């Protein structure tokens, strides 16, 4: 039977941004329906690094990451070829699998009174009149509200898409059990490894597992032979430090999780009345910053405040973009630097002689907090 409903707010997508917004709105007494296409949280392509700001936002939502098994991360390490250098992180940080985090956030949304519908994708989100957004789910059920929050992450909803990034990036995530020596050597660091066609982050997550999440240009993947086994070999040839790290490592997934067409650098600048775009639907920062979750939480928080304060969605989106612009540009410049052979050659040496460089970079790329939003950047 179709279950149609009328609500104050619809939220499309039950990842970090959607769940965080749902919790905030339900706590303010709004009737919220959140629609998530997966029947339960699953592993997602993500480095799973939680920056200081992300931890603060999660704490405000009563998500106790320590009790979920989050691992403290105290250092950032940069590795290219055989060289590595590290610096202490200038703020507290942690790592936690997305499966654990997304599960906790959805449970908190249910507890806050959100009507959560899982297991069916929203197929269309249409404005039927000046005061009504209608979401139609697979199977035909519809939900209506005067306001909608678009939080579908990397996935575009028909009619609300983003331009494709001409630079074709592909991202993979694999979990490993590292050898005992390499686990000790990695320690409590988030390690960024650089190679000719992109970069990868390696860091411990809960239960003694290590996350390796990498981003490669499409051409690098093609040159490597379009297969994960060949790609990971190629990355290890390019970055012997990574080869050392993975010596004796046991892969814990049958195959890596992958996503394509990541619109890095995207910032939404317009929206329709009553449609707030949050998380990756608002902005997609280069992954090496380890800041996407923080941005998802910030945009959820700032959009819900804007909605509750009666700020129109279009004004919110415009202000958000203005607030994030310089941070995004710096992150993109830094990402270009990581893809530059000379930069790859000298960066670890620079860090070795000047470990404070990483702290300086982190503070330079952090923007001051405007009325609504925003985050910080760090390498990780
Ligand atoms: C390679 C890589 C590494 C990264 N590493 C980090 C990191 O270490 N730290 C960090 O902070 N950030 C990192 N990020 C970024 C971070 O993962 C994202 O910015 C963050 O997940 C965005 O949250 P979101 O809520 O917008 O999207 P998501 O968390 O992706 O949630 C979107 C949800 O919408 C659902 N959905 C999609 N379409 C529909 C539909 N039609 N109907 C219903 N539901 C739908 C999806 O199933 C999903 O659950 C990384 C990103 C990449 C690509």
From TrEMBL:
Classification via InterPro entries: FAD/NAD-bd_sf, Geranylgeranyl_reductase
Entries under Pfam families matching the protein: FAD_oxidored
Gene3D superfamilies referenced in this protein's UniProt entry, alphabetically: FAD/NAD(P)-binding domain (3.50.50.60)
Coiled-coil segments: none
PANTHER family: CONDITIONED MEDIUM FACTOR RECEPTOR 1, GERANYLGERANYL DIPHOSPHATE REDUCTASE
Record-given protein name: Dehydrogenase (Flavoprotein)
């Amino acid at each position: 039977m179709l279950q149609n409903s009328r609500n104050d707010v619809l939220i499309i997508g039950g990842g970090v941004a959607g769940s965080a917004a749902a919790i905030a709105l339900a706590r303010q007494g709004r009737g919220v329906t959140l629609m998530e296409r997966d029947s339960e949280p699953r592993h997602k392509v993500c480095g799973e690094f939680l920056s200081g700001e992300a931890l603060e936002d999660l704490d405000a939502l009563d998500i106790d990451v320590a009790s979920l098994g989050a691992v403290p991360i105290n250092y950032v390490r940069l590795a290219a070829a055989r060289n590595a250098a590290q610096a202490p992180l200038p703020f507290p940080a942690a790592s936690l699998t997305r499966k654990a985090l997304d599960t906790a956030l959805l449970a908190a949304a249910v507890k806050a009174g959100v009507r959560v519908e899982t297991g069916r994708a929203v197929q269309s989100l249409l404005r039927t009149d000046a005061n009504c957004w209608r979401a139609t789910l697979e199977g035909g059920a519809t939900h209506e509200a005067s306001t909608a929050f678009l939080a579908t992450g990397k996935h575009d909803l028909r009619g609300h898409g983003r331009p494709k990034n001409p630079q074709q990036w592909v991202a993979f995530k694999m979990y490993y059990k590292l050898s005992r020596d390499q686990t000790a050597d990695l320690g409590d660091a988030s390690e960024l490894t650089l190679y000719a066609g992109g970069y990868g982050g390696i860091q411990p997550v809960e239960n003694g597992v290590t996350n390796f999440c990498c981003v490669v240009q499409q051409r690098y993947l093609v040159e490597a032979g379009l297969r994960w086994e060949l790609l990971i070999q190629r990355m290890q040839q390019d970055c012997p430090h990574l080869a050392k790290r993975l010596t004796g490592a046991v892969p814990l997934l049958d195959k890596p999780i992958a996503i394509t067409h990541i619109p890095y650098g995207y910032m939404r600048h317009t929206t329709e009345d009553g449609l707030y775009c949050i998380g990756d639907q608002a902005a997609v920062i280069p992954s090496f910053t380890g800041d996407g979750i923080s941005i998802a939480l910030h945009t959820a928080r700032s959009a819900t405040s804007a909605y509750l304060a009666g700020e129109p969605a279009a004004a919110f989106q415009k202000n958000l973009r203005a607030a994030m612009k310089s941070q995004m540009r710096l992150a993109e410049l830094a990402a270009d630097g990581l893809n530059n052979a000379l930069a790859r050659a000298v960066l670890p040496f620079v860090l070795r002689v000047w470990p404070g460089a990483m702290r300086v970079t982190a503070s330079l790329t952090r923007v001051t907090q405007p009325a609504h939003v925003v985050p910080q950047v760090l390498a990780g």
